[in-house]
Amino acid sequence: MSEIDDICREVWNATEFVAIVTNGPDGPHVVGTWGDYVRKLGLRDDMVVMPGGKYRQTEENLRGDARITLLIASRQVAGTNGPGQGCEISGRGEFVSEGPLVDEVKESFPWARGALVVHVGAVRTQL
Ligand SMILES: Cc1cc2nc3c(=O)[nH]c(=O)nc-3n(C[C@H](O)[C@H](O)[C@H](O)COP(=O)(O)O)c2cc1C
């Protein structure tokens, strides 16, 4: 993922979970996935892939507003003023329900009904 620099790559390798925020009719909508899930699917060029078991509200939100933001963090990575760094990853999201990518996700996560995909536009550290 070219948008992700070395620091955020370190955070990516250490984060326990990923917070996922979309915009819904009632305001921000927050869901999550596990760090080891996304690491299993791997970082791709400017694309993050997450196993979609549910994410039904998230899917609906993305149909109305494709903007999506992820937050990852770890105390194991040094921040500017001490231990701990977090990275905000923002871009355009879509829920993909079929095709080769979904087949690949289902190989590792048979319970997935699809793939939540983020096309990364920007990455920035928070600490
Ligand atoms: C740490 C954590 C990991 C989660 N991992 C997943 C996941 O990989 N896939 C998934 O569909 N839901 C996962 N969930 C549940 C979602 O956050 C969410 O509650 C559920 O998918 C319903 O989404 P919706 O509100 O968009 O319909 C996770 C929740 C937490 C707190």
What does this structure look like?
The structure is a single chain. The chain has 127 residues and is α+β, with helices and mostly antiparallel strands. It has a single domain, classed as Electron Transport, Fmn-binding Protein, Chain A (Pnp Oxidase, Chain A). Helix content is 27%, strand content 47%. The chain has a six-stranded antiparallel beta sheet. Strand 4 (67-78) and strand 5 (83-96) form a beta hairpin. It binds flavin mononucleotide (FMN). Residues 17, 31-34, 37, 50-58 line the site of flavin mononucleotide.
| Run of helices and strands | HEEHEHEEHE
How many structural domains can be distinguished in the coordinates? Answer: 1
Number of strands: 6
CATH topology: Pnp Oxidase, Chain A
Q: What is the SS-derived class?
A: alpha+beta
Overall morphology: globular
The tally of helices reads 4
Walk across the major sheet and give the strand order: 2-1-4-5-6-3
CATH architecture annotation name: Roll
Strand content: over 45%
Rg, rounded, reads 14 Å
Bound molecules: flavin mononucleotide
Low-confidence stretches: none
- The fourth-level CATH homologous superfamily is Electron Transport, Fmn-binding Protein, Chain A
Largest sheet: 6 strands, antiparallel
- In CATH, what is the class? Mainly Beta
Percent helix, as a range, is: 25-40%
Average pLDDT metric: 95
- Calculate the terminal CA-CA distance, rounded to whole Å: 21 Å
